[in-house]
Amino acid sequence: MGIVVGIDLGTTFSAVARVGEDGRPHILPNSSGETTTPSVVAVREDGSILWGDEAKESQLMGDANAASFYKRSMGESTYVERLQNMAFDATDLSAIFLRNLLADVSAANGVEIDAAVVTVPAYFGATQREATQEALRRTGVRVLGVLNEPSAAAYAYGLTGAGADRTVLIYDLGGGTFDVTVARISADEIHVLASNGNHHLGGRDWDAILTDMLLEGLCEGLDMDRGDLDLSLSDLGTLAVLSERTKRELSARPRTRARVSVAGATGTVEVARREFEEATAHLLTMTTDLCEETIAEAAESLGRPLAWADLDGVVLIGGSTRMPQVAAYLEEQTGRPPLGGVNPDEAVALGAAIYASQLAEAEGDSPRFLLGGSAPRLVDCTAHPMGMIAESPDRSRYVNSTIIPKNATVPASESREYLIPVPAWGTGRLEVYVLQGSEPRPLDNDVVGKYVVTGIEREQGDAKVRVTYSYTENATIEVSADQPALGRELTVERAEVEGDLSRFDRSPLENEASEPACAPMRVMIAIDTSGSMYGRGFEAAHEAVRGFLSSIEGAPVEVGLMCFSDRAEIIAEVGTGPEKLLACSDPEVLREANLGGGNTNDPLRNYSDWYSGQERYKRSMANCLLLLTDGVWSMPACQEAQQISQELRKENVMIIGIGVAYADPEFLRSISTSDSYAGLFDFSQLGETFSTIGRSIASGSEIRL
Ligand code: AMP
After folding, report:
1. Considering the chain, what is the average pLDDT of its residues?
2. 251 lines ligand 1 (CB under 6 A)
3. Quick one: which of 614, 538, 547 has its CA closest to 578?
């Protein structure tokens, strides 16, 4: 049987660890005996793959077919890396790297890996987490779980300290990203109180400033103008490598010398740590500002004041925390040196291994004895507020309406109510665009999903719909909705987020003016063609159809025609154009319908048969049966119509019953949607009556006959 591991899939380096027989987490070194492996992938001309150290070496030699830092673009559909003319996204590159890394550490340590926990930055949203899991899945290793990097570090740290509760700040400065977390760590619980991150701040930015200093120094030494240096792409690559190396040297000694040779100019530049620290002080300040913000948020979560001095310690993670100014600054703030005992390069993988072992145990794996007890339980928090796009109360703009706040304890479930207009006929729908972020303008946040809520029923005034977000341990959002006033759960279905969301930059009122006033409606007009309609009746029915069609012009209303007498027939399908409908309702044509002369047929039955044969999406739209009759139907037809009308109304089909001459208004009311949806009229009034009905349908307003 294989083992479970924790994987730190880092921006620059990655590491794999497991909990050993001794109950402690250990790094599984790669086949070169290294505890960390560069997260680099390259493709050779013959299509074969280089990865890790070899790929990094190749990249340093200027190989353009090598990729690194792809983790920063995880889950981004626009990120494509072209290696030997093949396109790879960040998930592809991560999967290739992980497959090789896992095969290598398995062989080097004589183990088989079955399942793993993979770590991600706390600020990663659902899409980036899913992309990371997908990369691991493609290696054939089962995904046990996803763990936030600072939480993993807290696990590793939790094991080194004894007993009492401590509030610690986890400061993670890597090659390309910065993450800060405040957590309470006790023997049985790691409670993450607040998290923040800047994924465009890391060792690379320090390197860039050092590059600048080296070029400044070179030009000064050679007495030349900076503008005269014509740097090539390969010069920039050389400088990046040199700056990174020089930066590391400055971490070890107060001054160092670098030999710079670019664009035909060569010289030795001496750099002092002090100068470097001064030139990069603003970068350090960016991290400390974010620390302060996080401490303030943690105080809010705790419900009591919290200051630097109240922290029991700072845990340093990430290669860039080896720069002495980081520890010095943090010591100055807290009054004590950062907590030791955690290797900044290994802590995340070690913590992930503990968590993996804990999850495997929960699944029934034999328990491991962790330092005299079991590993603490993890209580994580949300790194971003999660909301939805809503209209401002004055309908002048769209806003980001937060449902789950930032730093909410996970799993979290929160609800918010929204007022939704529902047309007089049919039901309303609501589109929920899930936003991740705190920016007021919706499109400045990540739109991480779309859900459609249907079947919203009318209430007094607008319907009150409660939207609930449930945030799971895997940082995915589940959306549900209900109508509290009616005690009804609503149907919520996931939908594709469309590419063009620019309408959310316009005002809701503006959009309303350019969008149809009502949802699509499908109307079947059923005309009585029994003998008594001959002559004047058919003329009036034709006028009625004409009146209806002219009043719905431009509205998304589709119309069909049915004739009934002793039998029934659909003479124009719903969706037929107005000209054809007018031709079909011509008195001559109606006269030739030839469906018998009496009223023994129940047209609701025919409509119901037709309706149930419609595709599902058509049935889910608003549907209407508009009946015109001039007499009393046979008793069985009436009874059946009353029963079928109940069934159709349950399906939200709107039924309107218009009578002329000898029709029974009482019966028509009994089969219509409501009393105001039925009435008895004069032949001469039919054109106007049908126009009124058409106007109400086109504007989505109540029908009052
Ligand atoms: P990580 O993403 O945690 O692997 O961190 C990689 C970053 O740490 C890179 O920017 C490295 O240049 C930086 N780094 C590693 N060692 C040192 C060091 N001794 N001094 C300064 N920066 C370092």
Report:
1. 91
2. yes
3. 547
